[in-house]
Amino acid sequence: MIKLDIINEVVNRTGITKTKAELAVETVFESMKKALSNGDRIELRGFGVFNVRPRKTGIGRNPRTGAEVSIPPGKAVRFKPGKELQSID
Do 75 and 40 contact (CB within 8 A), yes or no? Predict the structure, then answer.
């Protein structure tokens, strides 16, 4: 599923125009990005939780040359599915 599929689903379920549905979906995603960049936790009941966690520094290897590469510390977005989402067959 891509963003366009989500927009089309909003249009089909609500009957609003495609332009307004696109604006609504884009607003939701931008709000989520902003919250995650601020380090906030996003909890969607029945779906799951998004949060930002620090990533450790480490040493990796270049697969072609085998040379060691330093991996800098950073942040990564993590998703933990909710109980309803986990019970999908």
Answer: no
pLDDT tens-digit series, residues 1-27: 999 999 999 999 999 999 999 999 999
pTM of the model: 0.77
Helix (H, G, I), strand (E, B) or coil at 75: strand
The SS3 assignment for 43 reads: strand
**Do the beta carbons of residue 71 and residue 59 sit within 8 Å?**
yes
Provide φ and ψ at 37, rounded to 5°. Answer: -70, -25
Output the pLDDT for position 2: 96
The answer to whether the CB of 87 falls within 8 A of the CB of 60 is: no
Residue with tokens 């930002």: 52
Q: Which amino acid is at 84?
A: E
Helix (H) or strand (E) holding 25: helix 18-37
Position 82 scores a pLDDT of 93
Q: Which tokens go with 29?
A: 């995603």
